[in-house]
Amino acid sequence: MKLKLSMLSAAVLLGACSQTNITTTSSLVQTETEIVQKYRLNTVQAIPAPKDMKADVIVHGRVSTVEEIDVAYVGKQIPFTFSDGKVENTAGFEWYVSKHFALKTDYPAQRAKFFLELLELSYPYYVEYFGMEPPNIDQQRIASTYATSNDRLRDAMFDDGFNRGIHHTAGGEAMYYNWVGYSFPTERPQHQRYISIHETMHSYQMALGNYPWTPSWHGEGLGDSTANHNFDSAKKQLTVFGHDVPIFDMMSWGLHSYKKYQQPTIVEIHNRKRFDRGLNVLFVQFMYNNPEYSQYMKIYHQEVMRLQTDSREKSLEVLQAIVPDWEALEANFKKWVANIDETHVVASRGQWEMDGNMFYKRKSNYDYAPQRVGFTMTPSETPSYRPFAIDFPRPDASELVLDAKRGIKEPILAYVLSYQKDTLSKGKLGMALGVKLTKENSEAISKDYRSWKGANTDLDEQVRIEVKAANTLQIDSRNLSGKLSEYKLPTDIVESLATQDKPELGVSMAIKASSLEIIVKTANAQAFKVSEALTEQQKTALLNRPFGLISSDNQHGITPYIDDGRELNPRSTDYSKATAANAWGFTGDKLAQRFARANWKAGKNTPTQWREAFNRLNVAALNTNQSESIAEVAAVNALMPELAKQGANLNEALAELSGIQLQLDWLGHSANNMKQNAIITNHSQQDISGTIQFTVNDQVSKLLPVLAKAGEKINIIVPEKLLAQGNTVVATFDYIWQQQGIKQVLQQKTKQYHGYELAGISGDFANDIFTMKAKVHGPFAGKTEGEITFNFYHSGKKETIEQAFSLKPYEVLELSQNFKVTEKEIDHDAWFEISVVAEVDGEPVLVRKRLPYIPQKFNR
What we know:
The structure is a single chain. The chain folds into five domains: 4-20 and 50-338, no CATH class; 344-563, Exo-inulinase, domain 1 (Jelly Rolls); 589-641, no CATH class; 659-749, Sandwich (Immunoglobulin-like); 757-852, Immunoglobulin-like (Sandwich). 26% of the residues lie in helices and 30% in strands. It is built from 19 helices and 41 strands.
């Protein structure tokens, strides 16, 4: 049986999943001396090749940490990106590059470096969630544009051809016309990072090649889920795909929408036309937090590219064909949502920000009533570990506070204040214990969970333990039948804080039998202890009610130590050790993808042992004993010879199981250097041998030998003379894997397609008629309509003809107009211009080309 895949997209998809440890070789590779270069941010330099730059990131599950990332300042030189020819320079903007990304911005150099580091930290997760990489990513970068103001970003978008400028409500946009992610300025640091991660995920999605239209749950749900993050600036550490992140939280939105829309099914979320970020995130989080379902999502990504889906109906058909038991999927989704128990209560649109585990309030243009960061746990509850609860690294231990302990007779909570030195004495902040919402606040929060409009949490029942002006401990129990007590901090503490470069103060709170004991501590000073009497009513409230963080009139940081259960995580939390990029750090994830695709291809004919092997890997992913998990992967790999025999008559499925990936795509270091290659990647643990042959129409290339070692990638250039013989090339690849003969047949266009563009213009004069011609290419997805304008300038005047048109995806439209003119009128200084304004993916885009007319020879 032959394996046939029709391929319009740039990446295909056997074996799936690019790997970072793949070795690349080429039939035309020449050895080069490695150049060691110091990259600078203060001097313009030549654009470094991506292969010469480092993007060394330690990936540990969903946490990535900077090891070494190169960033270079290249000024006005436009780097070679997947947006080539569709992104221009803008006055006041400069270009910076890292290994995988190129950034056009008017931000200062250090800020540009920060953004590129953030994107490189995100890159492994783009690869993980789509299960593939752009084929030419080793030589071609992904472009982004960030600006310091809306007006400046509008200028940049106008320069790139967008007639609308920026969207008036969006935080950022990634454009299907040019595959650039545009990030709008915002006062919120969390939101700014969120936009960058989200929009660049869209650009990555497009760079995979000819990505089609998909429902909003897919692109937006994946973008929002990935960008639901935590970032530790001191450690340069990013956690993505947050399930339980307090600030700018999408899961809370999802739970709110799920309740509001009466528990919609996955089918209803998929088919929903009205955009809802929360529901999108809820669905995507569910799929990627399950080892089995995450594999089906990757197949879905690959299939919609291959099939170029263009409707919700087709998208759902693809997804339901991949998932073997849809009824179980729906039931598991409903159960999963019902069991979500968030650990925090905070207004996502409030003033609160996070840096790692440190919370702080930013300066804001908006008028907010007092808002508290609330936690849903209580001091009396025994902590427990729950997967995906507070799913980012816990804070480092601090010598300034006692060990926090909940669920004991005399619980201890603590916090560390990190002061801004220049405003050390400004404001007050701390924790509130024994919290009970007023009726008015409860109603306000339930109505508007994101902004808490009308809520004032200062009015709730609570005991507030705060430090005011960095010199006074304040205990306020007036809202809980108590009093306000103030204690001046000892001189040695106050003076120590004043002399520290980064002032820090620890506050520990122990709920005793009849008192609240507080210890205040900083470096190079004696600890200060205070005991405040508690009534039985107050003690009961402090033990059995939740608590939260409070802050007013400052931007100081507060890091809570609340014994939240993260230290009970049975998995390794040594983030200096690399694992896989999935939720479980499971090294067998790519092997599981091969089984998922093989079982899907085999359908009802899937051998029982294939299904059993897939299930074993899914169970191994959840095993918190890493040694046992690794051993299980090895055990499944050891079964491959026998499993391969069972697929002897299942060629398509066996090709998937083999992990031998065949792609036809364009590779090169510049737009003028792109050549079509057969890319063969061996994801298996066995060396393979075989042959490949190319056919265009009836023309056939010679049979080429293929030898690919385990983990090796081979690039074979398709002969250019052969490509000139027609519109489609077919690659036939025969190879031996595990003593089984396998055939893969793949077809691709002979010319690279760049989506919507004015591909070329020409002008010709004959018999007193000047004919102007334009070739317009349709988009990758969606209908395009617009108007083309033919402008002819000659003998000091201008003539114009306008024409409406419409384009389907991949359609090549040739348009022309005639102008009656004499030889004399165009003998000197004649030129012509063709401009097109069209709605591309809902965006008005202007493209324009102009040329002088140079007559070769007139009759006279």
